[in-house]
Amino acid sequence: MNQLLLLDWLTYHNLPFNLVNSERFRRLLLYNNPSLQEGQIPSDRTLVNLLTTEYNRARGPVHALLQRARSMIHFTFDGWTSRQNASFLGINAHFIDRDWKQWRILLALPALRKRHTGAALADEVADTICAFGLQDRIGYYTLDNATNNDTAMEALAAEFDFDWDERRIRCAPHFLNLAVRAMMYGSKRDNFAELLAHWGDKDFMTEEDEQRQLSDAINELRTDDDFGVPSMEEDFELETAPEESQDQCPAPEIVNAEKVDKYRKFGPFGKLHNIGIALRTSSQLLEDFYEAQRQTAPTEPVLAWVQNVCTRWQSDEAMASRALQKRSALNRMLSIIEERWVSQGGKEKDRPAILKEKLSLEEWKVVAAVQKILQPFKVASKQLQGEGISGKRSTSGGFDEYFQVVEMLLDHLELAVQGVIIEENDDHIMEEVHLFDDMDAKTRRLLKIYIKLGWKKLNEYYGKLTSTAYIAAVVFHPCSVANNINKGIAIRA
């Protein structure tokens, strides 16, 4: 049998090698290929050895391809954690070959057995660079904004003699994530309650005066790169959570523990997060949620809760959308829980912790408004996805698109803080939507804090798009060059 095809299937789908030892799997292979003998089916150890052989075989051609590249060799590296909680560092090379074809190649996936410090990451990356003889071909690094990546870049710059700040490219999805989470959760150092207490009850004579007071209050906040809900992983320097795995962002085991109380102070989205934790850790509460859905909407399907994940802001938006969709069921669920508590004596010490997470009417208004505000961020994230390779989409995630997308989002937030956003209606016509209708003054000002915090963080990273790579991507983009040439021809004519 073709062992390489079997190896390709296992590695592509990230399946365990010992799957081939399964009696039923081997029986399936034998049934579908009567000419196959039991001894011809490889064992897991055989496939592991084959993988090592194939990797070593590919190193030579990859090394030659890298050496013949037209461009410099650019790098990305990031952590990944397996389901068995083993940590690895993926190191990718990006370049243009002699035939003008763009490549992305995974050069190495070393295990991270030490603490994920910047120095440890730099050692692994440097070893890979030297192994492929790329010391004199180093281009730019596109990384997320973790502190240990700063340290790693400093170490790599010292070893290979380059300006680390110039060669560091910001990961757009990551700083969009920081901006959105700043908008929804604020800083772990400065929370909404304190800021609202500073000016939320003041009466302002004019809207302009209110905006000035708001800006002054926001600007007093310390710059903090680590916006977001505090998690159990804050002590680790490297984010290693897989995109789809909530388990990689450990949540407190006890619903009413001190750790959960820290989440709640971040406002309505923190409360929704805590509700998700409660549903995940209690089968009784989960059944209450399902029963509440059956009672409030008997003809609609019963849906699971969508829990947010610390590494993806889209999960926060999805959580908010599901909460708004099942708002009546959530309120009914909390009523069921409270009724059960009262029927059992209603002692304060036995009060279910989840009842503290009930959202007020005004908090629901904030969730609904923020969910609307986030829609352009969803569009922007899709625009900036990809490898910068043009295809069926009108955008490809190239650096030349960063400026216009971020500027669009900043304009969007500046308009939103005035209580207006532009939204496409059911007839595909753009129209103004007013965010502050039916909101009391305190809620309106609270929502402005959300928006301003997001704007502040996004503007901070907009100011960091100063590397030559960004400017060159705009100036030397073929479309820009062609437009400038055409303009020149038109002027001469």
Describe the structure.
- This protein has two domains: about 1-55, no CATH class; about 175-460, no CATH class.
- The protein is about 50% helix and about 10% strand.
- The chain contains 20 helices and seven strands.
- The strands form two sheets. A five-stranded mixed sheet has the order 3-2-1-4-5. A two-stranded antiparallel ribbon has the order 6-7.
- β6 and β7 (about 430-435) form a beta hairpin.
Low-confidence stretches: 222-264
Total strands: the figure is 7
Widest sheet: strand ordering: 3-2-1-4-5
Which term fits the overall shape?
Answer: globular
Mean pLDDT: 80
Number of helices: 20
For the sheet with most strands, the description reads: 5 strands, mixed
Count of all domains: 2
Q: Which band does the percent of strand residues land in?
A: 5-15%
Structure, briefly:
This protein has 493 residues and is α/β, with parallel strands linked by helices. It is built from 20 helices and seven strands. The strands form two sheets. The protein has a five-stranded mixed sheet with strand order 3-2-1-4-5. Strands 6-7 form a two-stranded antiparallel sheet.
Pick out its properties.
493 residues, alpha/beta, five-stranded mixed sheet, two-stranded antiparallel sheet, 20 helices, globular
Itemize the secondary structure elements and their pairings.
Elements: H1 3-12, H2 23-32, H3 44-67, E1 73-81, E2 87-96, E3 102-108, H4 118-131, E4 138-143, H5 147-160, H6 164-167, E5 168-170, H7 172-185, H8 192-199, H9 207-219, H10 258-264, H11 268-281, H12 283-296, H13 313-325, H14 327-343, H15 361-373, H16 375-383, H17 402-416, E6 420-424, E7 430-434, H18 441-462, H19 468-475, H20 478-492
Parallel strand pairs: 1-4, 4-5
Antiparallel strand pairs: 1-2, 2-3, 6-7
Helix pairs in contact: 4-5, 7-18, 9-18, 11-12, 12-14, 13-15, 15-18, 16-17, 17-18
